[in-house]
Write a structure and sequence with these properties.
single chain, 380 residues, GroES-like_sf, Rossmann fold, 18 strands, alpha/beta, 13 helices, lipid metabolism, seven-stranded mixed sheet
C-alpha cells in the first residue's frame, strides 16, 4: 500500500525534531502515536534540538544547545525540517544585542536557511509537503532541527538548485540584487566599487554584476593570503581587486583612463574605507551603506557633496521586505531571477564550511574571526 509522504518519512527516520515558534511552553505535551494503515505505528516526537540564548552576550558563551517542546500544528501553520542554516554577521549581532531588531528572550538564533515542509495545516493552500522554503522575514530563529511556523512567514524555492545556494539565498544575494537594481540605472560597461568584497554580499555583487556586464572594483583588507583571495574573487567575475591601502596610489588614476569611474559605491565597512570609496565615485553617483564592520561612522568630505553632488543612501534588506510585504511579485521575481543565475552557474554560494549543530561553539567562534571568507553553515 502506498504511504503518504509524511508516513514514509516517519518510517525512514523514526524521528522528527520539531519546535515551536514560541518558547513559553515549559511542560512537554506528548502527541498520540501515528498509526499507519498497515497497523505499524511510530510515536511522533514532540521536541526539537535548538541553539537558544537566554541573555545577550558573546555568542559562543551565551548560546546553548537545548531541547524545546513542539506545539500542535495550527490550521494556518506548517511543520518544517531544517536542512541547512548559515551563521551570518547579523545573527551574531542579534545574539550580542546590538542589532536593529531583537527578539524577546529566550530566543532561537539564526535568521536564514532552507527547510522542507513535512506537514501542513488544513487551511494552508500556498505550500505542500516536500516543498523547500526559506523565511520571508528576519526573526524566525533558524538554528534548530525543525519548527512549526505560519505558512505566510515562508516562501517556496525550487528544489533544483544546490542546497547551500538555497540556504544562503535569502540575505546576501537579495541584498546585492537590490543594491545593484534600486539606486542607479546601471548598464553593461558601467562600474561599481565596493569594500568588503570578500563578504557574502560582496561575492554576490561580483557575480550578479558580472552576469549583467557591469565592471566591479573590489576592495579588501590586506592579509597574508591576498593573492589567493584576489584569484578567487576574479574567478567569480571580479574585474579588479585592490587593498584599501592601494586606493590612494597612482595606479588608480591609470585605472580610470581605461575604466569609467563608478556610478555606484557599496559600503559594508564604514570609517576611512567608506571615505575612500567616495573619492573615486563619479559626479552625482551614489554610495549605499549596508553594513558597518569597522564600527566607525561614515565621514563624507564636504567637496564630495558640493562639487560632486554625491548621494548618500542606506539599505537594509529586512526593511525592503517589510516595505514590499504586500507586493508578492517583487519578492517572487527577485528570487526567480537569482535562481536563474544559480542554474546557469553564474551565481554560486559563498565558500561554506558545513558543521553539525553539536559543533556550534566552534562554528560560532570561527564565524567571529577576522579575515574569514568562509561561511559556517549548520547542515542537519
Amino acid at each position: 500500500m502506498r504511504l503518504s509522504p509524511v508516513a514514509s518519512f516517519l518510517l525512514r527516520t523514526h524521528r522528527i525534531y520539531r519546535t515551536s515558534g514560541s518558547l513559553s511552553c515549559k511542560k512537554r505535551v506528548r502527541h498520540e502515536p501515528v498509526f499507519l494503515k498497515n497497523n505499524f505505528s511510530v510515536s511522533a516526537v514532540t521536541d526539537s534540538t535548538a541553539l537558544l540564548y537566554r541573555n545577550h552576550g558573546e555568542p559562543s558563551k551565551v548560546v546553548q544547545l537545548e531541547t524545546l517542546d513542539l506545539p500542535h500544528i495550527g490550521s494556518d501553520c506548517v511543520l518544517v525540517k531544517m536542512l541547512a542554516v548559515p551563521i551570518n554577521p547579523s545573527d551574531l549581532n542579534m545574539v550580542q544585542g546590538t542589532y536593529a531588531i531583537l527578539p524577546s528572550l529566550p530566543a532561537v538564533g539564526g535568521n536564514e536557511g532552507v527547510c522542507q515542509v513535512m506537514e501542513v495545516g488544513d487551511k494552508v493552500k500556498t505550500l505542500k509537503v516536500g516543498d523547500w522554503v526559506i523565511p520571508r522575514d528576519a526573526g524566525l530563529g533558524t538554528w534548530r532541527t525543525a519548527a512549526v511556523l505560519k505558512a505566510d512567514d515562508l516562501v517556496a524555492l525550487p528544489k533544483d538548485i544546490p542546497l547551500l545556494s538555497a540556504a544562503t539565498l535569502g540575505v546576501n544575494p537579495c541584498t546585492a540584487f537590490r543594491m545593484l537594481s534600486d539606486f542607479e540605472e546601471l548598464k553593461p560597461g558601467d562600474t561599481v566599487i565596493q569594500n568588503a568584497a570578500n563578504s557574502g554580499v560582496g561575492q554576490a555583487v561580483i557575480q550578479i554584476a558580472a552576469a549583467k556586464g557591469i565592471h566591479t572594483i573590489n576592495v579588501v583588507r590586506d592579509r597574508p593570503d591576498l593573492q589567493q583571495l584576489s584569484d578567487r574573487l576574479k574567478a567569480l567575475g571580479a574585474t579588479h581587486v585592490f587593498t584599501e591601502e592601494s586606493l590612494r596610489r597612482p595606479e588608480m588614476k591609470e585605472l580610470f583612463m581605461s575604466c569609467p569611474r563608478p556610478k555606484l559605491a557599496l559600503n559594508g565597512v564604514g570609517g576611512k574605507s567608506a571615505t575612500e570609496l567616495l573619492r573615486h565615485l563619479q559626479s552625482e553617483g551614489t554610495m549605499v551603506t549596508y553594513g558597518g564592520m569597522a564600527k566607525l561612522p561614515v565621514t563624507v568630505p564636504v567637496g564630495a557633496l558640493i562639487f560632486k553632488d554625491v548621494k548618500i543612501r542606506g539599505f537594509w534588506v529586512t526593511q525592503w521586505r517589510r516595505d514590499n510585504s504586500h507586493d508578492e511579485d517583487s519578492l517572487r521575481n527577485m528570487l526567480d531571477e537569482l535562481c536563474i543565475l544559480i542554474r546557469a552557474g553564474k551565481l554560486s554560494a559563498p565558500a561554506c564550511i558545513e558543521v553539525g549543530l553539536q559543533d556550534f561553539q566552534k562554528a560560532l567562534e570561527n564565524a567571529m574571526k577576522p579575515y574569514m571568507s568562509t561561511k559556517q553553515v549548520f547542515v542537519m
